[in-house]
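Design job #97: recover the sequence.
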C-alpha cells in the first residue's frame, strides 16, 4: 500500500528483535530519567521523532503525560501498538521526521538512540532538526542523542572495518557487530544476535556520523540556542571518547 511516507526499512531489518539489541533495562531507564528531568513542562506536550517500538516513549509517558511518536516504519509502529495495552500513553504516527508537521506545539521534542543518524545526508539531518524546531512551543526544548563520530573513528583504529562482540548475561547469547566506515561519514553496521535457542538474527543499518558541532549548526540554522552537551544522561559532560552524545537546545 502506498502511504506517501518514505521508509528506509529499519523495521523490516529488526522486526521482532529490536528490543533485544538493548537488553539492559538500566540503559533505557537512565535515558527516560534524563528526558523527564529535562522536560521544561511535563503535561505541555512531548513529541518523539523515530519512536520505534516505544522503548523510551512508553515509560516516559508514565511521568510526563501523553507522547506523540512519529516513525516511518510500519513494523516498528506495530510493535509499539502491541505494547500499548500494558500501559503508557503514546500516540503512534506514521510519518517522516524530515517532513512531519502538525498544528500542535510541544514543550519537549526529542530523538534518541541515533535516530537522527538514520538520515544519511547533512541536508536531511538539517531538515529534521528544522522540523523539530518548528514543532517546539516557545520556551520548549529539543533533546537529541546520537553516535559520537570521534569515538566511532577511534574504535576502528585507522581501519575501515572492525568487528566486536557484546556478550549478554544469558549463556550463549550476545550481539556481534561488523562495522564498516564508508565515504561521506557513513557508517554501516551489521548486527548478528545470537539467541539462547541457537538461532541467529541479522540486521543491517546505515547511519551518518556527526559531532556535536554539526548538530549545533543545524540547530542554530533552525533558530535554536545550544544549551548543553553530555556523554551520559546523568549529566556527565561531553567527551570525545564516549560512544554516544546528548545535546539540548532551547527555543527563545
Ligand atoms: C535506532 S531506532 C530508535 C527507536 C527508539 N527511539 C528507541 O530509542 O528505541 C531508529 C528509529 O527511527 C526510525 N526512522 C528512521 N528514519 C526515519 C524517518 N525519516 N522518519 C521517521 N522515523 C525514522 C526507524 O524506523 C527506527 O524506528
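Job complete. Output follows.
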Amino acid at each position: 500500500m502506498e502511504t506517501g511516507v518514505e521508509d528506509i526499512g529499519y523495521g523490516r531489518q529488526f522486526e521482532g528483535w529490536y528490543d533485544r539489541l538493548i537488553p539492559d533495562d538500566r540503559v533505557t531507564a537512565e535515558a527516560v530519567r534524563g528526558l523527564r528531568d529535562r522536560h521544561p513542562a511535563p503535561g505541555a506536550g512531548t513529541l518523539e521523532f523515530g519512536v520505534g517500538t516505544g522503548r523510551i516513549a512508553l515509560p516516559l509517558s508514565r511521568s510526563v503525560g501523553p507522547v506523540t511518536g512519529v516513525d516511518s516504519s510500519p513494523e516498528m509502529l506495530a510493535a509499539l501498538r502491541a505494547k500499548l495495552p500494558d500501559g503508557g500513553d503514546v500516540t503512534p504516527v506514521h510519518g517522516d521526521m524530515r517532513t512531519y508537521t502538525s498544528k500542535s506545539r510541544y514543550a519537549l521534542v526529542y530523538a534518541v538512540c541515533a535516530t537522527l543518524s538514520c538520515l544519511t545526508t547533512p541536508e536531511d539531518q538539517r531538515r529534521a532538526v528544522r522540523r523539530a524546531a518548528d514543532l517546539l512551543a516557545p520556551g520548549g526544548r529539543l533533546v537529541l542523542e546520537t553516535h559520537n563520530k570521534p569515538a566511532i573513528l577511534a574504535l576502528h583504529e585507522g581501519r575501515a572495518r572492525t568487528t566486536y562482540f557484546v556478550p549478554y548475561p544469558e549463556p550463549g547469547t550476545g550481539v556481534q557487530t561488523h562495522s564498516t566506515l564508508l565515504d561521506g561519514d557513513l557508517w554501516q553496521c551489521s548486527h548478528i544476535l545470537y539467541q539462547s535457542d541457537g538461532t541467529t538474527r541479522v540486521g543491517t543499518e546505515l547511519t551518518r556520523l556527526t559531532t556535536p558541532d554539526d548538530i549545533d549548526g543545524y540547530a542554530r540554522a533552525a533558530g535554536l540556542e545550544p544549551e548543553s552537551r553530555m556523554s551520559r544522561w546523568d549529566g556527565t559532560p561531553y567527551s570525545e571518547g564516549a560512544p554516544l552524545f546528548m545535546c539540548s537546545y532551547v527555543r527563545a
